Amino acid sequence: MESYMVRALARGSGVWGLACLTTHVVAEAARRHQAAAAGKVVLGHALTGAALLGAMLKVQQRVAIKVEGSGALDKLVAEADSYGHLRGYYVLDEDTAAQISAADDIATLVGAQGRLTVVKDLRLKELYESVVPLQSGRLDTDLTYYLMMSEQIPSFVEIDVQLDARGEVRAAGGVLLQLLPDGDLAALTHMAERLDDLPAVGALLADGVSPQALLATLFGEVEYEILETGALDFRCTCSRERSRQALALLGRTELEQLWGEGEAVIDCHFCHERYVFDRAALAAILAELPAA
């Protein structure tokens, strides 16, 4: 099943909820990164977290989350835009990760020490950036802390990635519940308690429970409406032309050195696409630069 996000709103209670299925997009990212089990878990949490934050953006806005941990994970980055396009990458000590008994133990993989950085491009003059210390190494707990402390919005986040016996992505997804200004905090708390009483989100999704059905369970007797259902997909913004522009910025001296070596190769961290520029391509770039 394709990945998608559902947005719902209980106007009377002033609570809105997001629920997403990200299995397909996480599997695609893992394929591109040739990720082992631990890599799939950290990628899945980050991409799902970015998708949830991205669903709260306005048109043409973007968000990036970066996790730097003290466990096997060195760095984890995921980006999302308002259209549901996701990408991400990670740096993981594979040897240390292999020693962890449960490959899906996200808290141990990340480590309890470190920081979470959230950067938003809101189409203003400057980027919005907030940094909070990790609370547990579980990205959903840390995103809840970020929303409560940095944005000062009562919120609850749950993210889960389930692997099968072969270490493949069985299910991935998440939920975000948030209070609107002047909303009913008791209603939000009751919904969060319901969420806490349910099995893990990934287990529910793996059993065929849809994001819509999950939201219906959480809202319960509270009247709500589905605002939108939108697709999520893995999409990188890299391209050969952008790579060409990056090479041009290196300047004549460095480009001439690359020409002498025979080629320049640019690898994208996010999607692992490789762009190769041979001598002819490098010569064309050099010809466009101002004379030394």
Describe the structure.
By secondary structure, this protein is α+β, with helices and mostly antiparallel strands. The chain folds into 2 domains: 4-234, 3-Layer(bab) Sandwich (Hsp33 domain); 240-288, HSP33 redox switch-like (CBS domain Like). The chain has helices spanning 23-33, 37-54, 94-98, 106-110, 139-149, 185-197, 201-206, 211-219, 240-248, 252-261, 279-288, and strands at residues 4-10, 15-21, 62-69, 73-81, 85-92, 114-121, 128-133, 155-163, 169-179, 225-231, 233-234, 263-267, 274-278. It has a 6-stranded mixed β-sheet with strand order 7-6-3-4-5-11. A 5-stranded antiparallel β-sheet has the order 8-9-2-1-10, with helices on both faces. Strands 12-13 form a two-stranded antiparallel sheet. A hairpin with a 5-residue loop joins strand 8 and strand 9 (169-179). Helix 10 (252-261) packs antiparallel against helix 11. The longest helix is centred in the N-terminal third of the chain and has 18 residues, at 37-54.
CATH class membership of the largest domain: Alpha Beta
Low-confidence stretches: none
Q: What is the CATH superfamily label of the largest domain?
A: Hsp33 domain
Mean pLDDT: 93
What is the name of the CATH architecture of the largest domain?
3-Layer(bab) Sandwich
What Rg do the Cα atoms give? 21 Å
Helix- and strand-based class?
A: alpha+beta
Please write the string of helix (H) and strand (E) elements: EEHHEEEHHEEHEEHHHEEHHEEH
Q: What proportion of the residues is helical, as a percent range?
A: 25-40%
CATH fold-level name of the largest domain: Hsp33 domain
By DSSP, the count of extended strands is 13
Largest sheet: 6 strands, mixed
